[in-house]
């Protein structure tokens, strides 16, 4: 099967990247050299918000735009100086409420400048910030606030009904952004407090190992896990911003992720601002035209998005792209799910850019396996480990496997942005480190002879059919190469003879109708173009596939549907 994978290389395009050749730095790089660039290396006084914002004050970046914000009704910009003043003020608002270091303060609202100001202010008082997707319903909000014993939450009037205040004894303050409705006892107006707050603020210096952010992530069973990251993560956010995002002084950077997802904080806030980059934030749902318009309007140069979005753009056809001027784009990246080779080739065709895949997880806090702009890439591969980190494929006993063998993707423990705990759940944390010295990701992958890593699926998604191990991703990638297929999710369905058979759920592109002939044609397409044993025996057409808010196809939900089993925690599923 592996031999069937497309191993075509795409060479480096352009020059002048921050990162020299990968080979050159892999063996010489040290995280300690990165740390030395921060003053806290000597003073011991750390705060992420200081490094991301305040540090630029008094430098030529002071009046540079830190944040461009736009939604249906607002169009605004904020300099680094503005962000400092506003977050200092919000820090004072929180201090007045008595909020102190280590307490958990949540944010539950749509993307807006106030969200970013709040997040920085929370960090400035040394509290731990917990960002939530605005689409969470009451149960999801309750689980997270209860588990973390949050003392305050910043939200909007629309979302207030979804916060079960009465059930949350630890929750003392509800800060409401916008709206002129009457506030109830315990509710505080953001605008009123900000108006009165002084901009004279003394930041809370913390230890590099102190808590910074709590991201809840769903597993396949049980309640969501609270993944805790610490201020030290900045070392990774800073350096990956240099070498992976390739942020340079004049860049206008757009990360499309919501801060409810780790990508929207690590790479939507910390990494770009640590590097002093101009950050674009767009509010509202995905819209084809508005996405291209955003790139055109701000002359976005570096664009970080997810396969699901790229596939939607691809599915809409190339005509629409011609109506926009996207020539500002210099560097394009993807994360969250495997990036199908088809999408990479499409990117070459329509943007004349390689789309650089990056692999990492909520738990890893930062990018770990990437395609670097200064490195030849192989479409379909996640790339190579970031300098300073070691990745390997382990068997189920923890032994390292040779190239081309599928197994557990693991990272040598100890990179700067690694999670420091699972809130209230030490045994869950330890499960990740069950093989001495390794963090076991739960992803299944293999490494080729040249050290490129190839994603196969979550370990529990890998299919065993007639004695062959099949990674669902390879089959999905072949399926979306067919002109009629917009999206595909592939699962193993129990079968008395073959162990499992391959079943595909697909959504069709606009203009295609489901029919027996079309299904048979798609099956043949995979069989002949990829591998006979990997052709789905069953193909079912659906209007939409179940996806997380970050765009991941939820194979476990497909499987539960198929087997008529409970679907588990669905709080992160898209509507
Ligand atoms: C950042 C983020 C983590 C899981 C991870 C893997 C999948 C992420 C990927 C990828 C293939 C990539 N994933 N990036 N799979 N290629 N480039 O996504 O965090 O939401 O915690 O998800 O996402 O399965 O284990 P998170």
TrEMBL record:
Any GO BP annotation: acetyl-CoA biosynthetic process
Residues covered by the AMP-binding enzyme C-terminal domain: 474-552
Enzyme nomenclature, EC number: 6.2.1.1
Xref: InterPro entries: AMP-bd_C, AMP-bd_C_sf, AMP-binding_CS, AMP-dep_synth/lig_dom, ANL_N_sf
Keyword match Membrane: no
Any single Gene Ontology cellular-component annotation: cytosol
Listed SUPFAM superfamilies: Acetyl-CoA synthetase-like
Residues of the AMP-dependent synthetase/ligase domain: 62-421
UniProt GO MF annotations: acetate-CoA ligase activity; ATP binding
EC category: ligase
Entry superkingdom: Bacteria
Key words of the record: Acetylation, ATP-binding, Ligase, Nucleotide-binding
Pfam families referenced in this protein's UniProt entry, alphabetically: AMP-binding (PF00501), AMP-binding_C (PF13193)
Protein family (similarity comment): Belongs to the ATP-dependent AMP-binding enzyme family.
Full protein name: acetate--CoA ligase
Organism per entry: Aneurinibacillus aneurinilyticus ATCC 12856
